[in-house]
Every structure is written in C-alpha cells, then in structure tokens.
Queue: 3 jobs
Job 1
Amino acid sequence: MYKALFLMLIMLLFVNLLADNLDDKMRELQRIQSQLETTEQKAKQTAEKRKQTESEIQRTASLKHLSDQNVNKYRSAVLVVRDSLSEVERRLANANDRLSNLQYAQNAEMNMLLRVDRSFSAQQISHRDQRYLQSLILHQKRDFDILNGYKASLVHAQDLHNAEASKINRSLRTESQKNKRYNKQISALTNQQKKLSKQEQELQNNIAKLKRDAAALETLISQLLEESGRSLPSYEFTQIKIAWPVKGNIIRSFGQETRSYNTSVVSNGIDIAVHEGTNVHAVDDGEVIFSDRYGGQGKLIIIDHKNGFFSLYGYNSDLLVDRGDTVTRGTVIARSGATGSALEPALHFELRKDGRAINPVPYFE
C-alpha cells in the first residue's frame, strides 16, 4: 500500500514537473513569436526604407544625368564663344595695325602737303599735283573713318562675347557645384542603401532563426502536450473572420493614447459608439468565464473561445449571460451602456491572443 502511494506521489510530482515545463515552454514560445512579429515588422520597415533610398538614388542619378548634360553643353558653349572671341580679337588687332599704318601714311602726306604750300615752286610741284595730294588725303581720311567704324563694331562684338562668356562661365560654375552636390548625395544614399541592405539581411537571418526556434519549440510543446494530455491552441475561429459585436463607428482605436489628469492610458481595444441598450453579440463560439462589474470596464463579459483567443465586452448596461454559459457566434450576451469609465454610450471591445491584447479590426468580417 505504501509502495503504491509512493508511486502515485512520484507520478503526481512528475506530472507537476511536466506541467511546469510545459508552461515554461509555452511562455518561451509566446516570447519567440512576439519577438518574431517585432523582427518581421522591423524587416518590413527596413525594406521600405531601402526601397525609398533606391528610388531617391534613381531620382538623384536622373538629376545628375541632366546636370552632366548641362555641364557638357556649357563647356561646348565656352569653347565656341572662346573661338569666336579669338577671331574678333584677331580682327581687332588687324584693324588696329591698319589704322596705325593709315595714320602714319596720312601724317606723311600731311607733312608733304604742308611743304608744298610753303614752297611748291622749289619742289617743282604744280598746283594740279597739290590738288591730287589733297584729294588723296581726303580719301585716306574717309578710309580712316570707315576703319574706325569697323574697329568700333569689333570692340562692341568683343564686349558682347566677353559678356556671353562670363554668363556661360557663371552657369557652368553653378551647374558644376550642383553636380558635385548630386555626387555627394548619391554617395551618401548608396552607403545608406548598403547599410539598410545589410540590416535587412541580418533581420531576415534573425527571422529565419526565430522561425526555426519556434518550429523546434512547437514540436517539443506538442510532445509535452501529448504526454500531459493537453492540446495546443488552434488559433482558429469557427469562420475565417469573427463577427462584429455591434454596428457603429469606432471612436477610439487600438493603441490610441488618452491623457487626462496627468495620466496617460493606451487603449488595449476599440470603443464603438452605439445607442444605450443596443444588443451586444458574441463574436464567435465560446464559454463565458467572467460576467460582472470590473473597475473602469464597467459591466464586463469575457468569453474564452477555446482556441487561444479571449474576447472582452465592456461598458455594458445589462449582462444577459452568466459565468460558465456556453455561447455561439451571434448570441446576444449584453445590452450596451455607459458604465465604468465610459464618457458616452459605447461598447469597449478587446481581443486577446494568449492573454496579450491585439488589434481586433483585422479579424472582423
């Protein structure tokens, strides 16, 4: 008899240890799954940043390509203006030489004319030769005036070419500076892209490791569940999506922060505005595990859906089910109200997975 009792105690101790080990593994699995969700979210955000960076690189590269074209265009224009200016300067130098020669010839002829006036007889030059010399001087003066006009036009052309060259050089300097900025931006963005790609790869490697760890842990938990006679939550509802508990506008979203009396409160669920006394329906099959007043939740109902999910219904005016009752999808379980911390008639609804509050909106049909 004592031996049988001893064996029973040993088996009971073994079962307790097995249950404790199972609970530890379940908590570890929840931790890994939570870490996996966080890492996947980070990987998604990193991938989006990387794509944005790649788009920015392409946009900046396009701008740099246009800038390169403008730089080449301005450089070609500088060469054209420089060649044209050199031609003008060559013609101007030639005109100056001709003016100097003409001035020299005109001075010589003027001196000769003066000598003729003083003593044309001594030089044996007739009056007809004197008139010819005067005509020649007038002709040279006309040539001098024409050449001076030509020189003035060349000087004006030189000024225009210099002004155009200065304008093009300014544009070239501005475009070259812009081009350097684009090069720096592309270099910085490329480094950022490499860094993000490395981070994304590290996160993907971490995700793969977490998935392997989760899979191995799930296998171990399944073995422990089989040994203990318990079953793993299915996390599946009777339908793909759960039903809405009431129909109305969401006036407070999941995760929304509310500040009052120097206190910050983050919503673990959603508040749906409805008229007081509106029928509140169970979102899916389950067992009522709580039906009573509870603090700021007012009159509260909690349903265990036996699949790893729990649903909470708060702010009610009347509770129509009791603890231990079995309900089906769409069962009227309460009348909405404004009890607890409600500021207006509404239903406070929460969905919890393994006890952790999650956003219920994606689960609704």
Note: The CA atoms of residues 99 and 148 lie 8 Å apart.
Job 2
Amino acid sequence: MNTNYILAKWSVLVFLGLLSSCYCKKATYCSGWDKIEQNSIYGDALKDPENCRSRKGEAYPSDRLKRLRPQLMKMYQGSSRDSRSMKSHIQRPEMTRDQLMNYHVLASQGRIEELSKSIREKRQAEDNSTEATVNSNGTSDASSASSTTPRPQTCVPDNELTPARLCKSTFNTTAPMYGVSLTSGEPVTIVQIFPDLLQQVVFEMCDAKECDVLHGECVQTYVPYLFLVIPLGPVTLTGQDYVLVESGCTCRPKFSRPGSDPNPASIIPSF
C-alpha cells in the first residue's frame, strides 16, 4: 500500500516537472519563432526577454553584444568627437517606431510628396540639433499630415469599391532579433543593443490565404533590408547583410506561370 502510494506520488511529481520544463522552454522562445514562413524575421528586442531563444534553441547573445557595443558604436560613429555629437541624436525607440509607422502609411497611400517633405524636415532638424518637426506627443509631422489630409472623393460608395489590395495584410514595427540572409540563405542573428543600437523595421504579414477578387492564393512577399548581423555580413565593411523582411501579400492566380512570384534579389543592383 505504502509502496504503491509512493510510486504514484513520484509519477505525479515527475509528470508535473516535465510539464513545467516544457512550458518554461516554450515561454522563453522569441516571439514569432513558430511562424509557418521560415524566412520570416522573428523576435522583438523591445518586447522579448533579452536572452530569448531562437528556433534552434540557442539563447540570444545579448551579453556578447553588450561587450561588443563600444566596437560597434565606433564602427558607426567614427571618432570619439563624432560619437559625442551623435549620442545626442539617438532618439527614443518609441519615437522611431511612430515615425516608421507614419512613413509606411504615407507610402502605402501614395503620398510621396508628404513623405519626402517629412523626411527632409526631420533631417534638417537633426542637422540643427533641434526637434522642430516633432510635436509634443513624440510623433513626427507625418502623423498630423496623415490625420488632416482628406481622402480623395469618389462617386462609388465605399462598400462597392474594389479593394486596393487583393490580399488582406497587416503591418507593424519590430526590432527583429533573428532572420534569414538573402546572400547566404542561412539564419543570422540581428544585432540589437538597447537603447543605443536598435534596428527597427516595418513588416507586413499576410492575413488571408485566398484572394478577394481573383481566383488564387495569397503569397507572402519579402524585401531585403540591410542589418548589422552576426556572423558579420559580406555586404558592407561594417558587417551588414541583406535580411529578408515581410513586405506584403500578393495574389497568385490559380493558373499563373511558375516562377512569376516577386524575387527579393531583383531590387538590389548587381546582386
């Protein structure tokens, strides 16, 4: 009786221990590690634990990157005088995120002149060591432009308009921690050091599997972005590499010609 009770109790404890270890292991993986698209960026340095794990189960090398911080900052900022002058221009990550979202909205709506103007004003403000183009709530003029510019008028009711895109998608910003190199096709670790060296980007994910109008399937598209990565990339002297980033969702008609999907490498000159 006592032996059976002890065995039963031991079995329950072992089961709970295994269950707990599995839960903890899963909880420490970087966000997005389980995406179906294996080429996708994943992890977010602004939200995830600094030592969250990759798809291979390896912890993000945050301690190693912190030790490399002086060397990396010197590569990007030049001399010590330049470093001191540029340090004052490092803006808050939240401000960068808001500006990226505003720029993406302007670009997706075809408001290129407003986008160019906003970028010029931001650069001019940085050159003058001021924040003239940033309003009191920490967002750029692109935000106010996007909220005050009226929509173009049309004679067709909104509920009868053809959708601007055949495949639904959503976009957001992230400071990705892992991705896939376009040059080698291998997984790479994207350098993220909070708050001095954060590499943020806008990504756009497919929300639908089938097109709204045409008979076909929705396909995730990618564009290459330059990131500082480890191992150091071959594209620039500072160790950057092209990493695939989700850029939208396109409709592939059912009877389309094979190989007609967008090629991310085609937008890189002489790649």
Note: Residues 1-27 form one domain.
Job 3
Amino acid sequence: MTVQWPRVDLEIVLLLEYLRCRLLKECSYQVYTVTICFISHSSEMGGAERVLLESIEALQKRGHNCKVVLPANGLMQDALERIDVEYRIISFPLWGSSTGMHVAAWFKTVLGTIWNVVLVARAVRQWKASMVYTSTVTVCVGALAARLLGIPHIWHIQEFGRDDHGITFILGENRSRRLVGTLSAKCIFVSATLATDYSPFIPREKIAVVYPCVQAVTSQFGGANTQNKPSRSQIRFRCVIVGTVIEGKGQAISLQAIALLKKAGSIVDLVIVGDGPPSYRSVLNEIIMENNLSNQVSFTGRLQDPSVEIRLADVLLVCSRREAFGRTTIEGMFAGKPVIGARSGATEELIQNGVNGLLFRNGDAEELAARILELKEHPDLTVRLGLAAQAWAMNRFTAERFADDLCSALFPSSTVPLCTPALHDEISAISVGSQPNQK
C-alpha cells in the first residue's frame, strides 16, 4: 500500500528546507568533512601559532576534523585542549635557522628531518588524515610526509624568511622556495605582498591570499573604542612597539626617533614589548645610554597579552624592515590606536596614509620622529585616525570572512547547491502563496 503524504506536509518540509538554505548562505554548504593534520613549528603562542589556532577553529565550525603535531611541550597544548583538538609531540627539526648552521648541525638537521618525516607520516596515517597543513615555511616535515603518503599538502606561509626573521634555509632560499611550490597542492599567504615575493617560485594556480582574522584581538578589545580609557600617557605622550626584539623589527629606529624628538625639546615615552637575543638588546641599550633615554624607555619582555600596553599607549609603532602581514598593526587598530608604520612589506596593505594611520620611509628615523610629533601636537588627528582604523579593521578581519576565504582556498569545488534549481523554483512558488489542495 502506497502512503500518500498530505500536500500541506510537503509544503512545510519544503519551506523549512528553504529557510535552512537561506540561513546557510546562498543555498550551499560543505557536503563532506575531512580530517586535517596541522604541523606547528612551535609550541608557544606567537603570531603564527595564533593563526594556526584560528584556522583550526574556522575549519571545526565547518565540520572538519583537525589534529596537530607539535615539536615540544608548551602553551599550545593548553590552547588545543580548550578547543578539544587531539595532538601529538614529535621533536622534528626546522629546515631553517636564524642563527646560521655549521656542517655538523647541517647533517644532524638532515638526518633528523628524514627520521621525523617517518614519524609524522605514521601519525597522519593513524589519524586517517586526508590532508597535511603546515602553518609556517620554517618546517618541511609535513610536506615530505604528505608526499610519502600521496595526500595533498597545504603550506600556510607567514614569513619572508631572511628579510623579516633572518632565516637561512639548509637547502638555500631559492631551492627551498621551489620545493615549497613542488610539495604543495596549495600555498596560502597572509598578504598579497608575501605572495608576490614567492610567486617566481610557485605556480600561480597554487597561490591563494587569505588574511588572518585576528579573532583573539576582537575578544580582547570587545569591539569597543578604547580611546577614552584611563591612560598613563595622559601625563606624557606614549608610544609602544610590539614584537620580537631583533634587528628586522626596527626597535633601533624607534629609539633613534625618540632621541631626535628629545633633542628638539619634545619628550616622548617608548615601551618596547618583546624579547630577543642579548646581542641586539646590547645595541638598543647603547642607543639609550648615548642619548640619555633611560627615563623615557622601558622594556616589558615578552607578554602573552600585549593588548594591555597597547591600550595604555597613544600610538603604536611598526618599524619592521619587511612585515609579512602585521598582526600587531591590526591589534593596534582594534584598540582604536593610530598606527605609524614603515613603508615596507604588507604594512602598506594595511595602512592608508592619512586615512587609518600614518606611513614613514622605511629606516628613516627623522620622518618617524616627524610623524610622532604630528600626532602629539594634534590630538584630534590621533583620535580620528584611531577611530577610522578601528572601524576598518573590525569590518575586514572577521572570523566569518576568514573561514569563508580559507575554505574557498582549501576546497574550491567542495560545495554543491543544497537545493536543485527545480526544487528551488517549487519552494519559491510555495513561499509566495500557493495553497494546499483541498477536496
């Protein structure tokens, strides 16, 4: 006996399906899930690690399973446990070093890489992952393990290498960049500037640009402007520079600018957030002593939450020689602070001079000093640029946008219409007033 469902029930089902389609954005959604094994170069909580966590959370919300391989114990373990992500610790070496590498260390790195490729491949197979995702260019074990297993590898590239972090690759920079393209199904870059830099070595069809969402900062600042919060800088104008204390980040330029302002009779405080090698810290201390800046400059060391110092400052300085993205820039914008950035790298993608911040010639301490003085002498400009930066950042760097862009890069053809055209037409007809059959 065939059951004849009442027409009204069919219409209710179709209407519910139509509403579901609308909620799932233009009648499409992920039709399958995959297990992805992420490779993190570090177990700490720097910028690259935060992007990795944001990527995992974005993919989890779209129904995908994420696993992580860490090189050591660290803060990342707690972060992964909070979002219920399984991880394993495999002490693999990096294929790039910022301290140089002698012959014995070179051979040790090569042999260690070969052995750990096998260990990573074993973990990937046990997790039944169908994709390996490496979150930084400084690690190659994930790419080699994926090639060994015959599955796709994604390389999420967040640094230039030599120009921003002074990294020397064991196989040489150009050869390593070609291998990045050869061993990857897709290379995701955190800025267009970075993608352009790698483009001579990677096929165009493998390149995608996905800006991070910086969602941790959104929660820290809560979406509200912070210009009116109490600040020590109400006493003296205060600048802050955040990042690893190395030559490429330009702390020396910021000190030179503060020294020039002092000679011109304008006292400005500078807070340096971050840590780094003692050799560069000695260089900075020399500049401080030579210019008698001890009462104006303070070092905080590395902070897990630099937003506190950003809120207490009047201006954020970004003096990096070549920034691959500029997470700190966005942190300053979210805080409603004007950012003065060097005309280099991706900083020029984020700051529109005179609109949401100010730019100065890369390495030019005199122009940086002039920009700082301009904001110090014009509080209304400081507020206007800060508000414009905050509005722009909060509109651009959202978790939803990041998830959409990331999934489009990873799964360009993985979504299908939830409703066929014929079914959609029938739903539309019903939704505009079609009545159930009556006897």
Note: The longest strand covers residues 65-70.
